[in-house]
Amino acid sequence: MPHSFIQAALDGDNNFIKYVISLILIFLATVFLGAIPAAIFFSYSDDPTAAFEMRFADAGVSDALGLALVLLPFVFGLATTLFTIKYIHERRIFSVVNPTSKINYKKILFGAGLWFALQVVFEGIAYQIEPSNYEWTFDAMRFFPVLIVVLLIIPLQTSFEEVLFRGYLMQGLGLAFRYPWIALVFTSVVFGAMHMANPEIETYGTWLIWSYIQIGLVMGILTLMDEGLELALGLHAMHNIYASIFVTFPSSALATPALFTLKEMDAEMMYLYSTIAQVIFLVVCALVYKWTDFNRLFRKIQWNNPLNEEMNIKDEEDLILDVFEDETEW
Question: Assuming Cys at both sites, which of 50, 131, 203, 282 could form a disulfide with 58, CB separation 3.0 to 4.6 Å?
Answer without folding.
Answer: 50
